[in-house]
Amino acid sequence: MFSRRLTPLLHEELAHSPAVALLGPRQVGKTTLALDCAPNDQNIYLDLESERDRARLAQPELYLSEHLDKLVILDEVHLAPDLFGVLRGLIDRGRREGRRNGLYLLLGSASIELLKQSGETLAGRIAFLELHPLDVLEAASEPLERLWSRGGFPDSLQAPSDARSLKWRQDFIRTYLERDVPQFGPRIPPQTLRRFWTMLAHLQGSLLNVAQLARNLGVDAKTAERYIDLLCDLLLVRRLPPWHANIGKRLTRSPKIYVRDSGLVHALLDIPNRDALLSHPVVGASWEGFVIENLLACVPPTVQPFFYRTSGGAEIDLLLSWPDGVLWAIEIKRSTSPKVERGFHSACEDLKPSRKLVVYPGTESFPLGKDIRALGLPELCRELTANS
């Protein structure tokens, strides 16, 4: 059993908001975390993919009114969008009667319909949290390279062998393509979307060129953009935006694209284990994406992530912009003897970040030059968590 860092924040939000939406991909651990929030006799769990549980909500206002003394957990709530209006009425009635917060915990495996419906209907009544796959702090008992190779989904990470882990991820991908994607968007042939998702894995950490992707897939650019939007909304793919401040430089304007879980990158590319990964062309980009996702799982939600690149070759892999305008420049290296390149120095001269850091696979922290420090991923994650 892994201890999730989101647990205290979830309890805090339930104490201060009548409804909380917990978002994250399937199988990331949302249900386990939700059921840990209240003892069995103090929660009602309803899985809206279950016909039996949907039948219990045939008269939702009547049913939910009988359980106002418990935390009602609604899993896959996007499958019943009509419930949001009922929840709004019950929450408002409860406020008038002085009833407590923490009435409803809504679980969703995508942000599309859930954010659209609840954002409009439950505005001012709901808090949003995202549960990421396991990060290096939550899976501290596991070897770092196993977490990188298998990814952060608990069942994949804890599989008894690399072969079983890969099989789990392949089944996960198939389930999304054949069952989950059709629930959220226009019907897309599973084979087409799998090819597209695999293309993105090959392009891990590259600048997004929608026109080229569209040509390779044989669709128009608008269709390719819609596919990317869908995978981003399903919390499976990330667009990392470029830094956009006007500093008198020709800046890259296209985002970078990442498949968010490293284990899914490897499954899409048929990389069976760590040894095969280390000899694969994607190894550097996979490590970069793995580091970025772990760091972004640990930063406060008010911190904005970017990358920085100019036409002159200045580049920063990850730029963290803090609310007070402070910038942290982070370079990501796979080598255990990292070296800082000229592009990073040039970028830091442009932006004047307050912190200059190089993340590498080791554990020792040491200086790499004036104001630049190399450190391991867990150490930086701990520092970011302490600032949350």
TrEMBL record:
Q: What transmembrane ranges does the database entry give?
A: none
- Kindly provide the name given to this protein in its UniProt entry: DUF4143 domain-containing protein
DUF4143 domain span: 178-335
A UniProt-annotated Pfam family: DUF4143
Say which species the protein is native to: Xylophilus rhododendri
Give the residues annotated as coiled coil: none
List the InterPro entries hit by this protein, alphabetically. AAA_14, DUF4143, P-loop_NTPase
PANTHER family (alphabetical): CONSERVED PROTEIN, DUF4143 DOMAIN-CONTAINING PROTEIN
Query: Where in the numbering of this chain does the AAA domain appear?
Result: 17-138
